[in-house]
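Module 6 notes. Inverse folding takes a fixed backbone as the condition and produces residue identities as the prediction. Think of it as a translation problem where the source language is geometry and the target language is the twenty amino acids. Below is one complete input and output pair. Work through it position by position during the lab.
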């Protein structure tokens, strides 16, 4: 890519002015091996922009007081926005001359390359200095812990890391670490592409992803939560790539095993008693009939057929069912929450493999419900691929993956929390906006399903404003599963198996709570 074009794209990225096509152009360029200098330039630009925001805030604080009286003077929003934008543009335009002149990062050297956001345990740097929250790690520092957890952010790249003990981690450079012992989960933003985690057995390079690396005396392994990573070649094995849901294990000789090629490893719950009972929220699984599919083709792009089919229903506030005519519909199903993987769910209900692979399926649960208490609620979760919640016909939560058409039908505010991992999502838990729900019943509609393929997973949690939830030792509130009925003993055991998997493998968790259970109104 020509220097002038790269500078134009980086400037647009810093100022949040890139079109989707330009963002994809920049992303594709940054993924290339030879783009190491471009990635470094982007990191510098973002870091300079952060300094700008702080400076602009200071300017605003100092200029918003009347010189004579000392009272607060409120400037029109347009004027303040123009001031910040103008300074930002000036800095962004000036940054590139700094790049050409070989300018270095403006961060003071004593700040180190990684900041400690939080630490719970006995962390030591270079086997002597105690590490505490707010501290930092410099190039060459070796962090060891016998117990506990530490949360880091790398200053230049914004890479976010959570490591658990027993831990031995060496910060080699601003964008490379060596993991001798422990578990390390990383979330890498676009400007951090190229970040490297090295173990005794392999060097793992991020290409825009979230992944977990574990190192033990007998070997190491990497599990890709989302996105793409590359593994360096060793011996007779050349460079290779891994994508979401893949697990690779390396022994001390460097040999590689990939026991999980595709599936995420998240437990699948048994069907249980899916026949509705009194007090059940009822739904049906919808899919296309076999004779509605297109002729088989060697290669077909993944299209959200079911999302497109359900779009008119969602747009009508779940009142116009005509778009579902001609679809296959299962017998009534009891809503038992959304938790775990659902790879065998549709086949057990008789949906053919070809339908599952080519057009997917969707379950629509609906009914009148009441919350345990009136108040403000919001939903948390994630699904691969489709997960949508509506209250009184209005979408209040979209936890669907990026390739779901449901996200385009009735867009709703969504925040992603990469530090709180959720099954195999790079974004971690997603949350929706707060929704006020009074004592009276509300109409609830839930959509959950698969775009195309046999790898389906999801989880749906709920939070009440003002409620206090126990936190995991890495700081994630353990929100309860969204349920209408409490599980029986066998189902509780299965949910506990899923929870333990999240705790042990992904550092996530949830609870099952009677006090958080919602109620179906006949």
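Target side of the pair, the amino acids:
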């Amino acid at each position: 890519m020509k220097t002038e074009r790269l500078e134009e794209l980086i400037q647009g990225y810093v100022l949040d002015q890139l079109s989707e096509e330009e963002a994809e152009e920049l992303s594709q360029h940054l993924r290339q091996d030879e783009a190491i200098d471009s990635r470094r330039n982007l990191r510098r630009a973002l870091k300079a922009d952060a300094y700008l925001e702080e400076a602009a805030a200071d300017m605003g604080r100092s200029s918003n007081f009347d010189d004579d009286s000392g009272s607060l003077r409120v400037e029109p929003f347009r004027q303040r926005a123009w001031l910040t934008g103008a300074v930002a543009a000036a800095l962004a335009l000036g940054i590139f001359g700094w790049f050409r002149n070989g300018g270095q990062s403006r961060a003071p050297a004593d700040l180190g390359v990684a900041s400690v956001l939080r630490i719970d345990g006995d962390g030591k740097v270079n086997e002597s200095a105690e590490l505490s929250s707010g501290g930092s790690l410099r190039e060459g520092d070796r962090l060891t812990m016998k117990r506990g957890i530490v949360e880091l952010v790398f200053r230049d790249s914004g890479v976010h890391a959570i490591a658990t003990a027993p831990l031995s981690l060496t910060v080699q450079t601003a964008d490379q670490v060596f993991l001798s012992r422990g578990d390390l989960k990383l979330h890498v933003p676009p400007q951090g592409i190229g970040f490297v985690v090295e173990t005794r057995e392999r060097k793992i390079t991020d290409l825009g992803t979230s992944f977990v690396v574990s190192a033990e005396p007998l070997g190491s392994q990497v599990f890709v939560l989302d996105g793409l990573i590359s593994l360096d070649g060793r011996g007779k094995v050349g460079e290779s790539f891994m994508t979401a849901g893949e697990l690779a294990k390396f022994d001390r000789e460097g040999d590689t095993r990939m026991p999980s090629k595709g599936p995420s490893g998240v437990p699948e719950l048994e069907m249980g008693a899916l026949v509705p009972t009194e007090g059940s929220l009822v739904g049906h699984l919808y899919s296309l009939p076999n004779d509605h599919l297109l002729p088989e083709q060697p290669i077909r792009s993944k299209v959200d057929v079911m999302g497109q089919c359900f779009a008119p229903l969602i747009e009508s506030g779940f009142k116009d069912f005509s778009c579902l005519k001609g679809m296959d519909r299962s017998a009534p199903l009891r809503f038992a929450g959304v938790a775990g993987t659902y790879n065998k769910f549709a086949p057990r209900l008789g949906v053919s493999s070809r339908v599952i692979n080519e057009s997917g399926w969707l379950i629509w649960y609906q009914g009148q419900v009441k919350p345990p208490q009136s108040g403000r609620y919001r939903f948390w979760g994630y699904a691969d691929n489709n997960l949508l919640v509506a209250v009184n016909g209005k979408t209040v939560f979209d936890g669907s993956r990026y390739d779901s058409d449901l996200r385009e039908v009735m867009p709703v505010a969504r925040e992603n929390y990469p530090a709180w991992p959720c099954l195999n999502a790079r974004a971690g838990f997603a949350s929706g906006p707060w929704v006020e729900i009074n004592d009276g019943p509300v109409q609830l509609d839930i959509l959950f399903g698969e775009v195309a393929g046999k790898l389906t997973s999801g989880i749906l949690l709920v939070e009440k404003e003002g409620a206090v939830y126990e936190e995991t030792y890495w700081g994630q509130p353990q929100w309860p599963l969204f349920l209408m009925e409490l599980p029986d003993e066998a189902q509780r055991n299965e949910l506990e198996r899923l929870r333990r998997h999240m705790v042990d493998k992904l550092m996530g968790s949830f609870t099952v709570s009677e006090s958080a259970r919602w109620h179906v109104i006949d």
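Reference fact for the lab report: The radius of gyration is 25 Å.
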